[in-house]
Amino acid sequence: MIWTKFENRESALCPVAEIGYDKVPSCSVQRNLQGVFRNVFCFRMEEEKMTETKFAPINSLQVLAYIIRRCEEMGIFINITKLQKLMYCCYGTILGKFGVRLIDEPPSAWQYGPVFPEALRSIQFFQIAGFRQKPTPDVDDLPESFRRVIDETLANFGKFTAKQLSEWTHIKGSPWYKASDGGASLYHTLSDEDIKNYFRANVLL
């Protein structure tokens, strides 16, 4: 695990699983990501209409603990960086499918992709082991349809490395790309509307 300190953010440490790629992939890599990743990251869920429903977002630390538990139960390799990307993917699929925010903390556009700052700071301090026994009553009480979408999201996106997921979030036109002006202006909040539309168009089939 390599820890990189972001400029002008004394307390903002971001764990990076792999170093050696730019903030925004090159044009040739962009074309590859758009052509290949578009296919591999799209997945078909069980037939169920996308619905807009009333819902109270859940604390980000509970969602993080739940994702850790489910990944370990499903045999999915995780590290701190990858967990941030999986949280974002779950946030996006729930928002795209049901029109509601899963997490009470919005994702921000950091150098290596979307980040949930409070959740990141907590897991940097307590590490993954510190979340294994954390109770997740609000997530456990979610409707079965929500938990099924989360599991399918983890099974699909969990196959990829933190670096691959980070590169996918950087594709031109993505919510991260729009919020950060292609990586030129970081730490802005990603638009829920952009996330919802992007996941509906590029992930949910």
From TrEMBL:
Stretches assigned to the Antitoxin SocA-like Panacea domain: 83-176
UniProt superkingdom: Bacteria
UniProt cross-references to Pfam families, sorted A to Z: SocA_Panacea (PF13274)
The name this protein goes by in its record: Antitoxin SocA-like Panacea domain-containing protein
